[in-house]
Amino acid sequence: MKSKIYLDTSVISALFDDRTPERLLMTNEMWLKLSDYDVYISGLVIEELERTSEHVQQKMLAAVCNFTFLSVTKESQKLADIYVKQGIFPEKYYDDALHVAIASVNQIGILLSWNFTHLVKLKTRRMVSIVNLTENFATVEIISPPEL
Predict the structure, then answer these.
(1) pTM higher than the cut 0.90
(2) What CATH number is given to the structural domain containing 111?
(3) Residue 70: helix, strand or coil by DSSP?
């Protein structure tokens, strides 16, 4: 059985962002490993991709078309609200909390992100684990693509 992995929007957009060649290279290397995993994205990812510039939007949507799609549910919204209430994520960045909540509610063990400001950092990992345990959800490892 393959491990489950959730991709946030930053990973997908990094595939087409040549402003940071090193990150682009690491993302492409990680992308080759995805066949070893069951890969998930959410409706939130699709919404965020649809807000990108048209010249890359179709490429990004095509890149994720074979991944399993997860809906944003009331349960995931409730958990995201708890993350915000506990101060893990600022309310302004509710979508970051929602990405983690979607992965948690769907028992996805790994969330991949390039977002070092709100997601891929020790404080976030620890606090999400505490909330998830308190709320009876499994923990989710929040990591960057090179860590995969």
Answers:
(1) yes
(2) 3.40.50.1010
(3) strand
What tokens were used for 103?
A: 């992965």
Structural domain including 12 reads 3-147
Please give the structure tokens belonging to residue 82: 């708890």
Overall number of domains in the chain = 1
Distance of CA 33 to CAs 27, 55, 92, 103, Å? 10, 26, 33, 19
Confidence of residue 75 (pLDDT cuts 50, 70, 90): very high
Q: Angle CA(25)–CA(42)–CA(53) in degrees, nearest 5?
A: 55
14-63 residue pLDDT tens: 999 989 999 999 999 999 999 999 999 999 999 999 999 888 999 999 99
